[in-house]
Write a structure and sequence with these properties.
Archaeosine Trna-guanine Transglycosylase, Chain: A, domain 4; single chain; 7 helices; Pseudouridine synthase; Alpha-Beta Plaits; alpha+beta; five-stranded mixed beta sheet; 3 domains; 313 residues
C-alpha cells in the first residue's frame, strides 16, 4: 500500500476521475482520491491522496486556488467554456482593458455566484451536468464564494489573459461568463491552468508521463525543512533520485508535527487520548511514529490532552 500525497500536473482532455483511474493503474494503489475537481479542458495542479491518506481529504477542503487563463469575448456557451455550444448571437466584440476593468470590482471579494449547469454541483443528490445532458430543467442556486483576486493581465482582440485567486468552490467558468454578461457581449472561458492549490504549486507537480517512467522501487523522499525547498523535475524522477510523493511532514503545514513515543502510538492506535505537553494551543496536530511515518491527526480535547481524530497506521 502507498500512503502518500501526489501533486499531478493534469493534462488537458482528462476528467479528474480519468486521472484517478490512471494513477490507480500506474501505482497499483486502489485507494486514490483527488482534492478539488479540474474540468477536462483545464490543466495544472491536481492534488491526489493515496492509500490511507485519503482519510486526510477532510483537512484540505478550504484551500485557496490560483488560476491563470484566457477569456474569449463575443459569445457565451452553455458550459461557460470553449467545450460548450454557443448561446445567443455571436458578436465581433473587442472590449478594451478600461472597459473590462469597470466590471472587475463587482466580481471580486465576497460574491454570490451561480455555478454552470454543466458542473458536478449536486441537485438533490444528482450531478447537475447529468440532468442537463438529459435536458432536465435545472435551477442552479447562487452560492457564496470569495474571489480574492481577479486581474486582467492583457487584452488582444477578442481575448483577455487573467489571473484569479479564489476560495474553494469558485467556478472560474462562471467568472468568465458573468464578465461577458456585464459587458453585454457574452464571453466564455477558453483556457485555464491551475497554478496553485493550497500550499502546493506547479513546482511540486509531476506529469503522468514522468510518473509512468518511474518504474523502480520508490526511494524515501528527501527530508527538507519547508515546502518551498521541495521541487520535482521529470529528469530527477527518471534518474530515480527523487520521489514523486510529497514528504508527510510537508503536507498540512499549518498543523504542528510531533513524534510520538511507542507508548503514545499504542494509545492512539486504540483510540485513547494522549498528553502532548508541547502543544497547549494547537487545535490539531500531526502525529508521527518516525521521521517520515505520519501515523495520525489528533484533536485537542483540553489543555495538552489530544484525542485521535484520524488514525493512518
Amino acid at each position: 500500500m502507498i500512503n502518500a500525497v501526489l501533486i499531478l500536473d493534469k493534462p488537458s482532455g482528462l476528467t479528474s476521475h480519468d486521472v484517478v483511474n490512471r494513477i490507480r493503474r500506474i501505482t497499483s494503489e486502489r485507494g486514490v482520491g483527488h482534492l478539488g475537481t479540474l474540468d477536462p479542458m483545464a490543466t495544472g495542479v491536481l492534488p491526489l491522496v493515496l492509500g490511507r491518506f485519503t482519510r486526510l481529504a477532510q483537512f484540505f477542503n478550504d484551500s485557496r486556488k490560483v488560476y491563470e487563463g484566457e477569456i474569449t469575448f463575443g459569445f457565451a456557451t452553455d458550459t461557460y467554456d470553449a467545450e460548450g455550444l454557443p448561446i445567443g448571437p455571436v458578436l465581433a466584440a473587442q472590449p478594451t482593458l478600461v472597459e473590462i476593468h469597470r466590471h472587475l470590482s463587482a466580481l471580486t471579494g465576497p460574491i454570490l455566484q451561480r455555478p454552470p449547469i454543466y458542473s458536478a454541483k449536486k441537485i438533490q443528490g444528482v450531478a447537475a451536468y447529468k440532468l442537463a445532458r438529459k435536458e432536465t430543467p435545472v435551477e442552479m442556486k447562487l452560492v457564496p464564494v470569495i474571489v480574492h483576486r481577479f486581474e486582467i493581465s492583457g487584452v488582444c482582440g477578442d481575448r483577455a489573459r487573467f489571473v484569479a485567486e479564489v476560495s474553494a468552490g469558485t467556478y472560474i467558468r462562471s467568472l468568465a461568463h458573468d464578465l461577458g454578461q456585464a459587458l453585454g457581449c457574452g464571453a466564455h472561458l477558453s483556457k485555464l491552468r491551475r497554478t496553485q492549490a493550497g500550499e502546493f504549486n506547479l513546482a511540486h507537480a509531476v506529469t503522468i508521463e514522468a510518473l509512468t517512467a518511474y518504474q523502480q522501487t520508490l526511494p524515501p523522499p528527501h527530508v527538507v525543512s519547508n515546502l518551498s525547498e521541495y521541487t520535482l523535475s521529470d529528469e530527477l524522477m527518471r534518474a530515480g533520485s527523487v520521489s514523486p510523493f510529497i514528504h508527510p511532514r510537508l503536507i498540512l503545514p499549518k498543523l504542528p508535527c510531533v513524534t510520538a513515543t511507542p507508548a503514545q502510538i499504542a494509545y492512539i492506535r486504540n483510540g485513547r487520548p494522549v498528553n502532548l505537553p508541547e502543544f497547549s494551543d494547537a487545535p490539531l496536530v500531526k502525529v508521527f511514529a518516525s521521521q517520515s511515518e505520519l501515523f495520525a491527526v489528533a484533536q485537542r480535547i483540553a489543555g495538552t490532552l489530544f484525542r485521535p481524530k484520524v488514525v493512518l497506521g
